[in-house]
Please model this.
Amino acid sequence: MKNKSLIEQAKKAAEKAYSPYSGLKVGAALLTSSNEVFTGCNIENSSFGLTNCAERTAIFKAISEGHRNFKELVIYTDQDKIFFPCGACRQVIAEFCEDLPITIVSGRKKTERTLKKLFPDIFKL
Model:
């Protein structure tokens, strides 16, 4: 991982999660090509389909500020199990970066993947 502080930023973002239904607090830190960092947390809703994942929150914040090129994404949760990005998040990431390096930190475990490995057959028009 190029920027180790991304883990700490993702961890801090997880603290802001709104997760009264699952109890799962997730944070994400997204590094742009201009070396700016955008963070996000999961935001649940009683109508579960309206829940937004930490990864998409960070990406949407970056996009809304004019960023389209990304270098790295870190996803953090304090759980013991590794939680990979959901299908919706994989598709949103793929819209902007087909082979983004992704680091996933869960409790004491850490794994690194690329989006291409997690989502080899992306949907693109």
